[in-house]
Structures are given as C-alpha cells and as structure tokens.
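ugh finaly. both done.
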Amino acid sequence: MSLDRFLDERAESGDRDSQGVFTVDLNRAVRKLSEFALPSEHHYLLRAVQLAHLIEAEDIRIKIRRHTTEVGFRSEGGLQLCDVTEVCRTLVSPLEAEDQILGTLASALLGTLSDQNRETRWNFQSPKSQGEIRIQADRAITSSAEANVQKQGNSHSFRLSVHHKTNWKFWKDAGRRAAAASLIQQFCPFSCCRIFIDGRELPAQPVWHLNEHIRPLSLYKVGVSTSRKVNRAAASNILFQLAQPDEDSFTLLRPSLNAYVVRRDCYNLWASGTRASNTLMPDGESSASWMLQYRSGRENISMRRVRKRERFRAALALHTSEESRGFHPRVVIVRHGVVVFDQQIVSGETHVDAFHGCCFLLADAELETDLSGLKLVHSQALWETLQKYEPLVEEAREFFEEGSALLYLSGQTLSRRS
C-alpha cells in the first residue's frame, strides 16, 4: 500500500499543511493507549535494546547527552523498519500490529513521548533507501524517504534520537543521564548484543551472578580454610544449555580457563578441588562452582569448546550445601536481551520444589508480558514452563554425583545427594 493511500485512510487523525507535508496526529492514539505506557521516561531504551535483538544486531551504541539521547545499531535484518508506511500505520494503531518487530519499534517511539522531550527521530539507511520519521512534542508525525543509489552492501543502519528540552536546572540533566545509564545496566546485563554506553562497553555478566541469592551464613567453617573472604556461596554444579541459532538467548561470561581443568572430556572441575591435599572451597566469584556443565543439545562438552562470550538458552546453578536449604529458588527470565522477571519464589506455592536453593536463568520469547513488553505476567503458563525444565535439576545433580568422584570434598558441607 502506498503512503498516500495510507494517509488518506487516516484522514480523520491527520492533516496536510500548506507545504504538502503530511502530519499524523498521535494524540487520539495516545489517549487510547494509556495501558501501553512504559514504566518510566527511560524505559524506551529497553525496548530499543529488544528491537536490536529481534533483528540480530551485533552491537548497540547508546549516547546519553545533555540535550540528546541516541541509540544506533546495524543489521542485515529489519527491512520492515525501513517501510515508512508500515511504521506510521503501527504508530497510529500499535495494539493492532501483527509484526513483532514493528510493534517493538512503535513501543519504543511512543515511550519517548513525555513532557521532558521535544522531538523524537527515527532514521534508517538501507542499500535501497533512506529516510526519517519525526515525532514532535505535540504528537505530530512527519516523515520523508528517498531512494539510495550509492549505498553498497546488505546491512541496514538505524538510529533513534530523542531530543530533550533545555533545562536551566543542569543537575536534573545529570540525574536523567545517570538514571538512563543505570536502567540499561540493571536490566541488560545478559544482552547478546554488545552494548556501548557513551563509548564504554557494558560488561557481560559473570557466572557468579547465579550465586547472588545465597550468602554464606558464616565466613569460615571448622576444618575449612579459605584464601579470601567469602561473599557468596559457590554452587555445586552450574549447567549451561547452549542456544540454537533460531532460539532467543542470553550471554554469560565463561569463567577463566585457568580456574578449571577438564577431566574425561566433559567434566570441568575447579582446579584446586582436584588436589589430594585440598582443604579449600571455591570463593563463589572467581570460581563460581565446584564444577561446570556445558551442554550442546544432549551432549556434555568441554568448556574449552565454548566461546568466552557464548549464547545460552538456559543456565541452572545447583546448590547442594546445607546453607542452601533455607533459600527459595531464584528465577530470572530474559526476553530479547532484557530481564523481564527476577524473583525468589516460595516453592510450596508454585510447585517448583525441584529448584529449591537453585538459580534458574532462562531465555524465553513465548510467556505473556504486559503491554509494555518488559514485565512478565504471573500465570499458570509460567509455572508450567518451569516444570518443563525440572529435568535439568536432576541432570545437573547426576553430573555432580559422577564428577565429584574426581574431586576432594573432605571437610566440605556439600552433599552428593540432598
């Protein structure tokens, strides 16, 4: 459908000015979409991160300035994001969007509409065209597009720019920039895309993040010496399920190869724990677990076959120590690079007792979220999904029981069966 035809269909919500530039009035649409609003004026950044993941961008570059915030990324996918007609149609009726990518873009653009911003721009450049969509503070949209005959290659580049109103209270600008950066750091630590904020890369989350919900009740145990202060309990085994190319995924940094040794091709063991004279225990940080289990499909593999920054479908930290018995399971769910659920769950109320003391991290693109797309809805489907992954707990436990024969656990509080 041509843009002119689309604009004619939306005549009730738009006007053509004297210069022939069409303007779509979003005020009516925004009034209808109060439930579509994002939690804060900065959450559009999270939707932009999800958009980049959906089109499989390699990196996201965010610039947070006093007067402008920009999000830029490139990808060979996302051709529909260069279709001005479809983008405008989705902006006017975002809840009717059938294309997830366009719906996510609309959510990000609408999320920039606030009293603190004066203009939003969506720029794109593809091998065949380039263009821009502008949303003014009064909710009016203007757009332009033209053929691009000089562009070479197959990739598309996109840039979302939000222009902020000038504020003489300069300290508030500093607070806004800090809040925006903090939001990305809090909700995007598992992003598969490399995220750069003002030129600095947001570091991928280390594996010890899976141990944060369990703190040792005491720093030192009788008969157990430690080389440093213990701030979190180490897991018995951490199982990582590698993602398939077409699966939603997250990233965790692989631990240092110097801290672990590989035995019998697939048992990745804490190096100090393999010594006959061992009286130490992993510190829970640099050595997050007694052993690591990497699975590609149904096959257990050596950690040396895993990239430093790998894509995973699921990760399970199995805790079998006595201290872990008093901790409810922690569940973290990531949707297109953004954490949409992170809670410790009372096991008896949700029928997920198999995860007791564990931390389970899952990339999921199917469970229901609210209209913002950033918060998971508590539903029976959530508990059913968790129950589907209960076999992972038993597989991680069996791997630990088999691999612990290669470790020296004397004097430790770990049990091979709990």
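ok and the 2nd:
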Amino acid sequence: MAALAVFIGGCAHRESVKQEARKSNLPSPGPSPNSSSARIALHQLPLTSANMTAAKCFPLGIKNRWLYRVRDSKGQRYFSEYQIERTKKMGGKMFYISRNTQTNQPNTFSHLYITMASAGMSTYRIITTSNRLSAIVDYGNFRKLPVNLPANLTPGRSWDSKVNAIIYVTGSIKPYRLHGTISKTETITVPAGVFQALRVTTSIDYQGHRSQTTAWYAPGVGQVKFSNQAGKLTHDYELQGVTVSGRTAGTFETSTG
C-alpha cells in the first residue's frame, strides 16, 4: 500500500503501473465521502495485552477511514487516504477492500484486499489503476498468505513471512520475503492527536529490491504514523484524520494552507 507495514507496496506499485499495465474497466475514482456530519470522538484503547493484537491495532470495518499528511525526501507534500469500502469473500476468507488515493496523483488509485486470520493480518491483492490502465498483484494464495502483522503484538517479538507474488500483467512469479520486529510503545504526536503506540519495523525483499517501513500502531485507531524507505526515496506519513466504527479523531481537510 504504499508504505504499510500493511500499506507497503503502494508507492512502488504506483510508480510502475504505467510500465506494467493492461486495459481495465474498473471505475475511475470518485469524490471522497462527506465528512461534515456530526462526529463522536475516537479514543484509543488502553495498552493492555488484550488490546495489543493485529485485530485491535489494525481495525477493519466498512467505512473505517484514515487520512495522512505525507512528505517525501524529494520535498513533495500531499495527502494519502485509505477507506474500507466493502467486503468480499474469496477462497473461504473474508477480505476487506480498502481504497487508497493520493492528492498528488488524482488519476491513480489502488484497492487493497486485506484479511484477518489466526496468524494475523495479511494483504493479499493490490490493484493499482491509472486512468483506465491497471496492474494486479497477488501476494501468496488463499492457503498461504503473507503475515504483515502477527496476531499477538508482543514487544521484542520478530517474525518472517515468505510467499510468491503473482504479477498478472507480465505473468511472472516473484519471491516476496518479509521480516518484522516488534519494538516498544512510544508516545506519538501527529495532527490527529497524541497516541500511545507500538513501534513495528518490517523489511521487504521483492523483485530484487529492499524496502523498510517503521510504523506505529495505536489500539482501536490503527497506524498513526509510518515511514517507508525504498532505495534513496523516503515517505513519511502522519495521521491527520481517522474514523473507526463511526468515531472520529482529527480532521479530513486537505488544505495545504
């Protein structure tokens, strides 16, 4: 997703979509949902062992929404939004389909297929569309999915996940390797507020390249901050607005003033 521990893949995927694309009749992106309705304040859950789980730290639910301020190492500043639009059952698993848009690429958007299983949270499919061209990549298969975030988030824990990625445009299969480490809880201040969050670092080896993401997760809120480095390019994301289960923190305004 671009940079997820879970959103990993989005930035690089957007860069290559024009080179690895095929015709698609997927719909073009529409306007963001209206955010002017009355809001109930969102507060993170306490940092207890019962809440330090992938399910609590990456809350999945239709209409859950995250808006990030982004700054990259080239000096660009823009906004990136993720919103869970719907669910779809495939291969006996329920997937939440999240749509990612970026204000600096108004004609490009991605859909991420995310699921929560006993092993943890996994991103299975990413479809990136630019105008009417799309690139589709599946990570693993229904029997074996990558573990982007393990079920139990115990500080000091590390994990490894290895699957094959299928790139449909080229018909190629590439190894996808992930190594993750769970660090410690920290106080993180972002435009959406102040959160107690768990730091998780993941590194990805894919198509001959390595990327690394450091992300901070707050129970009941999601990723409040993350930074992705791929080669010489770095993207830093800070949460500006979030809605989970109808409760909101921060704002969804995208004015750069």
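summary for the 2nd one i guess: Helices lie at 10-16, 54-57.
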